[in-house]
Prior knowledge:
Two copies of one chain form a homodimer. Chain A is α+β, with helices and mostly antiparallel strands. Helices cover 36% and strands 24% of the residues of chain A. Chain A has ten helices and 14 strands.
Amino acid sequence: MATYDIESFSQGLREHGLVIPTPVKGTYARGPVFEDIVRRFDALVGRIAKDDGAQELQFPPVIARTLIEKLGYMENFPQLSGSVHSFFGSDAQARELAAKVQAGERWEDMLEPTEVMMTPAACYPVYPCFSGLLPKGGRLITVLGWVFRHEPSDEPTRLQAFRMREYIRMGSPDDVVQWRDAWLQRGLDLLQGLGLPARSDVAADPFFGRVGKMMAANQVDQRLKFEILVPVISEEKPTATCSFNWHQDKFSSAFGIRNSDESKAHTACLGFGLERVTLALIKTHGFDPTYWPEEVRTQLWPA
Amino acid sequence: MATYDIESFSQGLREHGLVIPTPVKGTYARGPVFEDIVRRFDALVGRIAKDDGAQELQFPPVIARTLIEKLGYMENFPQLSGSVHSFFGSDAQARELAAKVQAGERWEDMLEPTEVMMTPAACYPVYPCFSGLLPKGGRLITVLGWVFRHEPSDEPTRLQAFRMREYIRMGSPDDVVQWRDAWLQRGLDLLQGLGLPARSDVAADPFFGRVGKMMAANQVDQRLKFEILVPVISEEKPTATCSFNWHQDKFSSAFGIRNSDESKAHTACLGFGLERVTLALIKTHGFDPTYWPEEVRTQLWPA
């Protein structure tokens, strides 16, 4: 599939049962074959990273509201946030709520904020778990987490909720940067080895508004964020399938994470967007994985 | 562990690294050993159900707001709901929002409802995908989904976000009830075969308020809901680890799902609460799975 066109790609995904539309943009169901690719790719990453000895944690798709506030998310990315609200009222208020719903009136103003928000990055819940001293040599954590970004779109690689396989490194600044650099090459090798036309580039997060433009420029200048890009719906604007973030001491300072010698720790993370990698494989090799090149199949479906 | 006590059980879970506390009740992190049990149990269910030929779909943890409205969730369970709100404002409003967050003032009133809410039951997103005629013999779908219920609690089996492995059957009323009955026995055999003191009982959903009490009584009278219960934090109030719901034509009527002969279809679902089964196994067999009985280990960790 050498041409890039959102509509025909989306149509192919639907016609092959790879996705099933739902009423809201960016929330389609993933079919059995799509899910098999997701799982196989995740397993391949796991095999590659096996000897690193990462500790696996699992977090729910919601996170403490206080954490979002503390990390400045509402200042930087308010447009992507998801705040979870619920009903705390009486019997009489519940009847009023029900009447509004049934009348098609706006009922959400009868709700109040809960203690949680949608998790906006799979690594966010990890850091507060490790306040205090790291073991000698630091720590390596892995998570597979659901991430929410409020950016409804018909573009199949831009989902409101998606899964990231992340690795999170905490340790001395040198160790952390070295680890990030090594994984950048490893990630490129992995995706190119699967036949994807992948390349890496320096990148920036989608900071909100005018001030955000400066923050993004600063992030690029400091080379804090890299992405591995693959053309999926456009050749000029390839899709980020993997991203690498060096946070310096942003998280370690917020949560008091220190090296074993009491020095300030740094953190970095990398994450594969599992749906995006899957879509990149489908775009590159075709809608039916049984016809994918043998050297790709043997890696994803080993004997 | 023959005695039942929330505090000592929670402490044991923490001390063995099975869970790691987070700032919000009912959202703890699951550690590597906990996750291994979750995965192994889910794989065992998959092996048992393999020949049924269920089609596997994957949905995100959020669902269309219009669906929640249509299914009457806000009338029946407003206290458990999770409505996702985000920021749609201008640069100037974003500055006002940021100032409120930094001042510790309430900032959530500057948000607006999005198109999505938290998924309150793993089977909900399935039904609208199958409007129209079913194939002859009906359909069988399976999903592993994150479910949200706003009921913050220190009780380790009562989570705000948890995973359900569900099977969903759509077809003729007879087929659907027979399938539900067969799985009720299969579920009991499975859990008892893992050494759990499991028993089944008729049950009701936690409908809200005074009217809700009548709805729940009606649900019990009609024997629409069954649960498989295992004592985890109390012997008198055992924990529901698996639930079976016969919806009659609730979902099929709402979404126009009909049998191949154009007759009205029925639907039923069953779901294993993966965290709850894991906690039941830990409570029954101990905090370290390497010491679990051989006949349990061989089922969960087959050679």
